[in-house]
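Long-time lurker. I teach an intro course on protein structure, and each term I like to show students one example going from raw sequence to a predicted 3D structure in token notation. This year I'd like something fresh instead of my usual example. Would anyone be willing to generate the tokens for the chain below so I can use it in lecture? Attribution to the forum is fine with me.
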Amino acid sequence: MMMQEEQRERERAPKSRRDDDSLSTTTSASQRRGSKCFTFCPVPRFSPQLMLRNMFVPKEMWDNFPNGLSYHITDYFLYQPDMPSDSRLFVESPARFQMPFEDVWIHTKDRVKIHGYLIKQNPNRLSNNNRNLPTILFFHGNAGNIGHRLDNVRSFYNSCNCNVLIVEYRGYGRSEGVPSEKGLYADAQAAFEYIDSRDDLDSKKVILFGRSLGGAVAIDLAARCDFRDRVAALIVENTFTNIPAIAKELFKFAILKWVPNFCYKNRFESLHKIGSVACPTLFISGTNDDLLPPSMSNELYSKCSASVKLLHRFPGGHNDTWNCKDYFPKIAEFIKEEVSNSADKRNSGSAKYQAYSDNIV
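-- Reply from a regular --
Happy to contribute to a lecture. Here you go:
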């Protein structure tokens, strides 16, 4: 009799309630009569992502990673377009630094529109024609926007007598899209092609400059089969060998020594690519860099296969090396000595370099 009453109770219950019965005990006729009944709460599933978060992320930051650490977590640490917080809202203008400029928009092959400033030398300021001047293609670091680099750009403009094109990566400043390793490479290629498309700029005198993360972007572009014979010179400052090496350096956890490189979403394998660079290359290292070890610049210099390569050290930190004495005179000297002759040196076939053909956008 009792079993029949419970069966009728279950048949009268909504379907959702009957489904729930398979997971936990619901109120039944026997429970109403005082029988002991236990409600079973589902046990949380084991989450390695949460375990990794608890191991590697300070507790005060856990709310930023409610689902734990995953394959995409390196994006959070590597790309900082919102630091400072207004970096996506306001981008300083070169007009504030008394530089003539064009506000440019460049379309990449994957249909992302990126923003940049083209700062050309004033014809009245120099005796040379603008068309014959070198152009520095400036790749910035992992945080902020191009407006934060304009003071630095002004020094290039005044000291090196070059035009400057500085672009914001996708997801930074006023540019569209979301940052990624392949995306940044595509942005760099589009910026170079933009210079090549301009009749008023000499595409044979393009100098790639990259600081920190920008150094990895510049090295990739200079090493690609489609571009390495078109780059006049490469200058990288306080950059790194690859992202896995940085992780092991910044996070002193023994377990990272056993994590294979394919586990990193972003790798930026500059140490592998630098052997494919053929153009004259200048490495700049701040000996007081407390973020990236100066030894990484030494490694890149040693592996670089360019026929002309220089390494200059300055007593500067990660972000202020450019304020050191003789910084710009050394760069101006390098540009004057190497850029005008780089095409002849490359065509002579004297440079020996490794093949790097990853031209996939």
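Some talking points for your students: The chain has one domain: 75-347. Residues 15-46 have pLDDT under 50 and may be disordered.
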